Amino acid sequence: MLNFYMTPGSCSTGIHILLEELELVFSANVVNLVKGEQRSPEFLAINPRGSIPVLVLEDGTTLTSFLAIAWWLGKTYPKRQLIPENYLAQTKMLDVLTYAVHQIHGQGFTRIFTQENYRIGHEDWEEQQAVLTAQAKTILTNGFDWIATQLNGGFVCDQFSLADAALFYVEFWAVKTDIELPQACVEHYQAMLARPAVRQVLTEEGYRV
Fold first, then answer.
1. Beta strands, E only, 10-125
2. CA pair distance 13, 9, nearest whole angstrom
3. Alpha-helix residue ranges (DSSP H) falling in 84-124
4. What's the predicted TM-score (pTM) here?
5. Of the candidates 15, 8, 2, the residue with the CA atom closest to the CA atom of residue 31
6. What does the pLDDT look like over 147-159, one tens digit per residue?
7. CA–CA distance from 152 to each of 33, 95, 98, 188, 195 (Å)?
8. Quick check: helix, strand or coil at residue 3?
């Protein structure tokens, strides 16, 4: 059985959606980031990086990043076409997938959720926080504006793909933090909310659908 390590409402929600879309059997292990369980010896023995999501495969192989897990799922279950067959569509999917994870999440939302990681010396912390928040809003506004240009009234490609799961979790964060989304992203978010697997995941993770 696959062993999935996740935190409700985090980036792991995107992987959770992919697992449910594929109708896979897996065990879900909740890692409480607020309590620092990602730094516990038990978890570090599984993932020395101390991050989620983590997927431990049946042969013991451990995948420790969103992109690696998503790509493994897409390539392992090709009949579900989570990775488009057409090379041009595949390239577009990868472009949006990596941009959502690295830029919108990695550069934008980290400046909101993990500001301590950006703290510099003994300078005024409140002033630093204000600067980080302003930077985040600029990164997120520009980022979602670009994402909107890649959408055409629905999903990133002609059908649901790996990129849509990644885009959903950052859109979910935007909604929760009152970051305004472009109309195309709103339509994508609503299309995702209409999917049974997405509704199931949000319910399982404790959110109202």
1. 26-30, 54-56, 62-63
2. 6
3. 87-98, 110-113
4. 0.95
5. 8
6. 999 997 789 998 9
7. 36, 15, 19, 9, 18
8. strand
Q: Which helix (H) or strand (E) holds 74?
A: helix 66-76
Rounded-to-integer distance, Cα 197 and Cα 125, Å? 41
> Are 52 and 33 within 8 A, CB to CB?
yes
Specify the amino acid at residue 141: T
The letter for the amino acid at 136 is A
CA dist 71 and 15 (Å) reads: 10
Q: Do residues 192 and 174 lie in contact, with contact meaning Cβ atoms separated by under 8 Å?
A: no
pLDDT given at position 154: 85
- Nearest residue to 37 (alpha-carbon basis) of 61, 81, 5: 5
Q: How many residues does the chain have?
A: 209
Instruction: Read off the tokens for 55.
Output: 């997927």
Q: Other C-beta atoms within 10 Å of 113: how many?
A: 15
**Residue 196: cis peptide before it, omega within 30 degrees of 0:** no
